[in-house]
Design brief:
This protein is of the alpha+beta class and 66 residues long. The chain has one helix and five strands; from the N terminus they run E-E-H-E-E-E.
């Protein structure tokens, strides 16, 4: 079973980060929709995307180790 997560760009650092736990596609889309409903000026993250959960993840920074 594939797991999905929501990633977005952090406004402070400008880095792409995972902002949700691994979950089903439907749950990830619901989390993304909830984030998009927030006014753009109040969001801590920009450009939220639903993507497949990565196989290699740095547990300390929650960024991909490519």
């Amino acid at each position: 079973m594939k797991r999905y997560c929501v990633t977005a760009i952090n406004r402070l650092t400008g880095e792409q980060q995972i902002i949700s736990p691994p979950c089903s596609r439907e749950n990830a889309d619901a989390i993304r929709a909830r984030l998009v409903k927030t006014k753009p000026g109040k969001r801590p993250y920009t450009n939220p995307l639903t993507v497949e959960y990565p196989k290699q993840l740095n547990l300390f920074t929650k960024t991909l180790d490519v």
